[in-house]
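seq as requested:
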Amino acid sequence: MMRLVYEAALRFLIGIACSASLYALTGMAAAQGPPLTGQQSSQPDQVKVEALQAIRRSDGYGIASFVLFNGTDSNIDSVELTCWIENDRERRTTVLVWANEPISAQTSQQFRNVNIGMVGLNSRSECEVTRVN
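C-alpha cells:
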C-alpha cells in the first residue's frame, strides 16, 4: 500500500517537472523570433566560415580546416559552429572552437584539426557559425 502511494507521488512530481520544462522551452522559443527589418545584423551573421576542407579519419570522425572571418567590430575569443553533411541539418553536430589568441575585428584566422563529428564516406561537410563569444 505504501509503495503505491510512493509511486503515485513520484509520478506526480515527474509530471510537474516535465510540464515546467516544456513551459520553459516554449517561452525560450517564443523569445527567439526573427530580427526586425532594419535591425543590425547579429554577430553570428557577421562571422563566416570560409575555405572549409574536411577529411574523414579511419574512426569515422571528420577533421576540418577552415578560415574564420571576423566581420564584427570587436575581437572574438571563440565561436560555436553547427556542422552537417550532405544538406542533412537534422543530423548536425555543434562544435565550440577557441582561438589561440583573440581574432581581431575585420580579420581572418586559420583553424586546423577541428573535430566536426561523425561523417560518412565521400560526404560533403558544411559548417556555419551559430554563436560568437
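Residues 24-41 have pLDDT under 50 and may be disordered.
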